Amino acid sequence: MPRAPAIELRAAVNPLLIDVSHVSPCYAYREQRVDESPEALGLRLAAELAILFTASWWQSQAEWQIHEPIARQAGVSNAVIEALCQGLKPAFEQEDERLIYRLGHSLYATRRIDDALYADAIAAFGEPAVVELVGVFGYYALVAMTLNMFQVRRGTDTPLPFAEP
Questions:
Q1: Nearest partner of 140 among 24, 75, 47, judged by Cα
Q2: What domains, with CATH codes, occur in the chain?
Q3: CB contact at 8 A, 22 and 46
Q4: How confident is the model at residue 28 (pLDDT cuts 50, 70, 90)?
Q5: How far is Cα 43 from Cα 20, in angstroms, rounded to an integer?
Q6: Contacts of 53 (CB under 8 A, 6+ apart)
Q7: What is the SS3 string spanning 117-159?
């Protein structure tokens, strides 16, 4: 079977490609890796916020301990990190971060996203990035449940971020 020309392949997968532009100006280039595009930086920030929210929701000790420094390095603010660790709704300065929180909260609390929130997310991030975020929430919920079930700890002297039930 002959290979499709690159232009045809691009057209076929274009709906799956992520076109994100939701990095707040204050984050631009601050933690961007040398080989990382602004779009990839935005997706990394969004994913780390989603992961940290998930670790907080599930009170997954190891997931939090692993991802808290990564989220901080990716540009998630100290205030947001502290609020999430305490199980509080953060006072977000950036609307894109607030939207990621709303998506996660709705997915976990109701197992659904209402039409208005869906429209807001698509308008802000684009459909491919929303699909990616839902995947991040789902995957890291699985990780959190697994870590909790088997009581996985990091094996450090660092105090646990969440009270044990």
A1: 47
A2: 31-149 (1.20.1290.10)
A3: yes
A4: very low
A5: 7
A6: 84, 100, 101, 104, 105, 137
A7: HHHHHHHHHCHHHHHHHHHHHHHHHHHHHHHHHCCCCCCCCCC
Angle 132-39-117 from CA coordinates, rounded to 5°: 45
d(CA 150, CA 80): 28
Q: Is the per-residue pLDDT at 111 higher than 70?
A: yes
Q: Does position 27 have pLDDT exceeding 60, yes or no?
A: no
Overall pTM surpassing 0.90 (yes/no): no
pLDDT per residue as tens digits for the range 51-98: 999 999 999 999 999 999 999 988 899 999 999 999 999 999 999 999
Task: Using alpha carbons, select from 162, 147, 157, 140 the residue that is nearest to residue 85.
Answer: 162
Residue at token pair 């305490």: 86
Average pLDDT across the chain, whole number: 83
Place of tokens 């006072």: 91
Phi/psi zone of residue 75: left (φ > 0), alpha (ψ -120 to 50 degrees), beta?
A: left
How far apart (Å, rounded) are the C-alpha atoms in residues 60 and 15?
Answer: 34
Rounded to whole angstroms, the Cα distance separating 58 from 85 reads: 11
- The whole-angstrom separation of Cα 146 and Cα 152 is 8
Position 122 pLDDT exceeds 70: yes
